[in-house]
Design goal:
Helix content: 40-55%
Number of domains: 4
Strand content: 15-25%
Shape: elongated
Number of strands: 13
Oligomer: single chain
Strand order of the largest sheet: 2-1-6-5-4-3
């Protein structure tokens, strides 16, 4: 059963509205029948007291309640409730005006407050209470100061048997009617709320078990029976006449994955019975012959005196989720094992693949010197280019594998930035071939000549970015720039920029270029070689250095890759980072 709180709330509100209407009807009928008995008695006293204004009030109220009784089924509850409260208030005030603060009509005022609290919203009930207090205080001041005087001789009134009969039938009957009706209403409201709460609890996706302070089963919802396969309430009732019941024996359970009985002292329900909140996820219970794993929580419930009244436990079957977690863990372990095996395979392949390629390059070098004709020399050049491309691809894949497994390390030393850029320039020139592409190296004159860092990894980053620029530039310029951004006593903040005038990168591909084995969508005739991991390796190396690569590009106009890097000027000291963190402004 799915829990629909909106429907349950609407149903509870309908029940409470019906109960308020029934209370209003009870009060209307009760006040009417009291009037049937009391009004004639009250009017009969006119022979001794003379006609008083209160007798007119009694006749008017009698006629009003006759109409209310006849039309009560067609009148809204708020109208009937308002009439009852107004009647009680009016009769109470009139009685005090005639007989003073000793008048039994004070009970009518008190009854008006009780009815207002039962039938009116909190604001309306407070308004009635304030009005009653103000009326009593005003009449008390009036009698004390002499502004008001009694219209009836109280001593003569008390000697009149008719007055006593009116008091007993009127005020006494009123007290019985009002307080009995309100008591019935309060019990009905409690039952309606309890019934609604039980429906809510029954609709919870968790099994709920409530124990009293002696550990006896007090309540179990429907989902508990479905989860445990047994009705705990019925089972507890059947065994209640035998030896003392241990609810943990009724539930049973083992430590998940073992044959060991779950210790009662660690059970969340047991701990809740001793005022502690707790939960466990390793309780295994046999349900219809099948072991099921549960997440169990225990909560102590205290009364208004802060005494332990109940302990509440919730049971959630987590068998399937735990199986999924275990399967996911096994899948992750298999994936990690496969990744390690792949890394090991690539590491083993490195020597096996690099050695023959280096041998081929050496043989091609010897073949060039053997007096080849023009056509043979062209073939050798093509073979040399293909072999070097294959070697670059193998190196890229191996570097990518090492970066993915976290085996990349930095080996710092003092180096010359000019020599690094010169080596980078020669590398890029070797890749141009006969294409009309100009290679430029631009270094800010304020950049120190000597720097401390991993020049091999920095050359690899700039080389990969430059290789990518050369591959996608058929004609134009590829430039590498080193710009000074900031200098301190022991470090400099440099920005490295690689620009090209090639075909550019589509907006949707700008972040994908740093993922492994990605090739931009270009015509097949213009598609460069390579495994598509050079930029991914460069990105991971720059992150290892504490920075990140940004890219901007326009299709048909070229691309720009840039990254800031703070570098040391002297060898690092102990506990000093190789690449210091950059400020937010940087």
């Amino acid at each position: 059963m799915d829990l629909d709180t909106s429907q349950l709330s609407a149903e509870l509100n309908r029940q409470l509205a019906s109960l308020r209407n029934e209370l209003a009807n009870r009060l209307v009928r009760g006040v009417f029948w009291i009037g049937v008995l009391v009004v004639p008695l009250s009017l009969s006293r006119s022979a001794t007291t003379g006609w008083l204004p209160i007798y007119n009030l009694h006749i008017s109220l009698g006629a009003l309640y006759l109409a209310l009784v006849l039309a009560r089924k067609r009148l809204p509850a708020w109208l009937k409730a308002g009439a009852v409260v107004a009647t009680l208030f009016t009769v109470g005030v009139a009685g005090v005006l005639n007989l003073g603060l000793a008048a039994p009509s004070l009970w009518w005022l008190m009854g008006g407050l009780v009815v207002a609290n039962a039938l009116f919203p909190a604001r309306g009930a407070r308004a009635v209470m304030v009005a009653a207090i103000l009326a009593l205080v005003g009449m008390a001041i009036g009698f004390i100061t002499g502004w008001l005087s009694l219209s009836v001789d109280l001593n003569a009134y008390l000697r009149d048997p008719t007055a006593w009969a009116t008091l007993l039938l009127g005020t006494g009957g009123f007290v019985v009617v009002v307080f009995q009706a309100v008591a019935v209403y309060n019990r009905s409201v409690s039952l309606a709320v309890e019934h609604s709460m039980l429906q809510w609890v029954d609709g919870l996706p968790l099994g709920v078990l409530v124990l009293d302070v002696d550990g006896r089963v007090h309540y179990g919802n429907r989902r508990l029976e479905e989860a445990l396969g047994v009705n705990m309430v019925e089972l507890g009732e059947k065994l209640s006449g035998s030896a003392p019941i241990n609810v943990f024996d009724l539930i049973g359970g083992k430590v998940a994955g073992t044959d060991k009985r779950f210790p009662s002292g660690l059970h969340p329900l047991f701990r809740a019975m001793h005022g502690e909140e707790s939960n466990v996820e390793d309780l295994e219970i046999s349900v219809r012959g099948e072991p099921r794993r549960f997440r169990v929580t225990g909560h102590p419930v205290r009364n208004a005196e802060d005494e332990l009244a109940f302990s509440v436990g919730t049971f959630e079957d987590i068998t399937e989720s735990k199986r999924s977690e275990m399967e996911l863990q096994r899948t992750r372990e298999r994936a990690d094992s496969a990744s390690r095996a792949k890394g090991q395979l690539l590491a083993n392949m490195s020597h096996e693949m690099r050695t023959p390629i280096d041998t081929q390059l050496g043989l091609l070098q010897l073949l060039r010197r053997s007096g080849l004709d023009e056509r043979q020399s062209e073939y050798v050049e093509r073979m040399d280019a293909l072999a070097r491309g294959l070697l670059a691809t193998v190196n890229d894949v191996l570097d990518y594998s090492e970066s993915a497994s976290g085996r990349l390390v930095l080996v710092p030393r003092m180096f010359h930035i000019d020599l690094l850029l010169a080596e980078l320039q020669q590398r890029l020139l070797d890749q141009i071939g006969d294409r009309p592409v100009e290679i430029k190296m631009v270094c800010d004159p304020f950049v120190p000549t000597e720097l401390y860092g991993d020049d091999a990894r920095l050359l690899q980053v700039l080389g990969n970015l430059g290789d990518n620029a050369v591959k996608f530039t058929n004609a134009g310029t590829v430039s590498v720039e080193v710009q000074m951004k900031e200098r301190t006593v022991d470090s400099v903040l440099l920005e490295f920029v690689v620009r090209d005038t090639g075909m550019g990168i589509a907006p949707r591909d700008r972040h994908r270029v740093f993922s492994g084995f990605f090739q931009a969508e270009v015509p097949a005739a213009q598609r460069p070689g390579g495994a598509g991991v050079g930029l991914a390796v460069a990105d991971r190396l720059v992150r290892l250095m504490g920075s990140s690569i940004a890219v901007s590009s326009t299709l048909g106009e070229g691309s720009t890759f840039m990254f800031p890097l703070r570098m040391l000027l002297t060898p690092e000291e102990q506990d000093r980072p190789l690449y210091p963190a950059m400020s937010d402004d940087s």
